[in-house]
Amino acid sequence: MIMEVEIGIRDVARTVNFESNQTPEELSATIEQALAAAGAGTQGIVNLTDAKGRHIVIPAASLGYVIIGSDTTHPVGFGNLN
């Protein structure tokens, strides 16, 4: 299952977009833990891994929003037009 993730960072015009093999629940839990740590006065860090094995590390205080997309695939080709 591949999930599309879009992260908006405060004061940055471009979004961070990547695909992850983690479930929406795992992604949400990681983000919530980082936000809770940031709220407790420590430096909360969001550390996610994309489908290619790269790490995306963002300070939790910099998060503007996170969109966790669907795992649906879209058919490709002219035969799928109806």
How would you describe this structure to a colleague?
It is a single chain. This protein has 82 residues and is an alpha+beta fold. The chain has one domain (3-72). The protein has one helix at residues 24-39, and strands at residues 3-9, 16-20, 45-49, 55-59, 63-68. The protein has a three-stranded antiparallel β-sheet, with helices on one face. Strand 3 (45-49) and strand 4 (55-59) form a beta hairpin. The longest helix has 16 residues, at 24-39. The radius of gyration is 15 Å and the shape is elongated. The model has no long low-confidence stretch (mean pLDDT 85).
Set out the fold topology.
Layout: E1 3-9, E2 16-20, H1 24-39, E3 45-49, E4 55-59, E5 63-68
Antiparallel strand pairs: 1-2, 1-5, 3-4
List its traits.
1 helix, 82 residues, DUF3107, ATP-binding protein, two-stranded antiparallel ribbon
Oligomer: single chain
Mean pLDDT equals 85
Strand content: 25-35%
Give the radius of gyration: 15 Å
Strand adjacency order, main sheet: 2-1-5
Large-scale geometry: elongated
Distance between the termini: 27 Å
H/E element order: EEHEEE
Helix/strand structural class: alpha+beta
- Number of continuous helical runs: 1
Q: What number of domains?
A: 1
pLDDT < 50 runs, ≥5 residues: none
| DSSP summary, beta strand count | 5
Helix content: 10-25%
Biggest sheet descriptor: 3 strands, antiparallel
